[in-house]
Write a structure and sequence with these properties.
The chain is mostly beta strands and 92 residues long. It is built from no helices and seven strands. It is 0% helix and 32% strand. Strand 5 and strand 6 form a beta hairpin.
Amino acid sequence: MKRKILNRTQGFRTKDGAGVSLVRVLSRNTTKEYDPILMLDSFDSTDPDDYIKGFPMHPHRGIETITYLREGTMTHKDSMGNEDTITDNEVQ
């Protein structure tokens, strides 16, 4: 079975949280084509100053977040004090 590409989405560079530099791929601008509660960001910088400031405390309110790390090492710390580190090709 062949599938047809119906739509292509181009991400755009922006800042979020406490000044984190990222590429926003899916957001409020893509809710009609995809899903109203789906967000996809790409953190592609190799400069820690682009993302080390993180995000202020915020509730996810039952929303599951998934991080896939293609290359490198990342430690995620949440507002409750939980923390975990993932490396190349791992999912958190």
